[in-house]
Write a sequence for this structure.
């Protein structure tokens, strides 16, 4: 299967997965997080389609592996969401690990391939995943910001 098509397929599956998680949870904060992650996956999906269009002129065959490898394997199970999130209540570690596994896959493929054109494409996919990981980190920071603040002593004991 074409490596770029594989990446696009996995991003679509990830988006669908996060949408299902948003529907499954009753926790409003998690629901909001999963919706933001689904939107992020959609943006990432669009970026990969743009990448694919840009590569069309370069080389058409970026076949690297079978279609069976191109499956998003979520670490959070929708059927038992509460148990999955016992030790990671905000799902952050699960989501980051999924992204890191994608980066690792592309880095490994880049290392193993002998075709220079394929190596360039796989390296670009790894870079795109790294950018996406930063987006996820920013989403997490955005979600956590209301819970963390610094109260300065000079503002704490004012007389009115």
């Amino acid at each position: 299967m074409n490596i770029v098509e594989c990446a696009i397929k996995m991003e679509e599956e990830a988006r669908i997965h996060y949408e299902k998680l948003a529907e499954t949870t009753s926790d409003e904060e998690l629901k909001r997080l999963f919706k933001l992650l689904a939107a992020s996956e959609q943006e990432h999906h669009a970026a990969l389609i743009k990448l694919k269009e840009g590569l069309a002129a370069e080389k058409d065959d970026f076949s690297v592996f079978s279609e069976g490898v191109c499956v998003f394997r979520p670490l959070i199970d929708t059927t038992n969401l509460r148990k999955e999130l016992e030790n990671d209540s905000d799902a952050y570690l699960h989501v980051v690990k999924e992204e890191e596994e994608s980066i690792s896959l592309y880095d490994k493929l880049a290392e193993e391939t002998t075709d220079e054109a394929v190596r360039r494409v796989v390296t670009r996919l790894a870079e795109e995943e790294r950018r996406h990981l930063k987006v996820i980190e920013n989403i997490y920071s955005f979600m956590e910001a209301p819970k963390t603040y610094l109260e300065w002593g000079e503002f704490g004991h004012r007389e009115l």
Notes: The chain has one domain: 3-156. The radius of gyration is 19 Å. The mean pLDDT is 76.
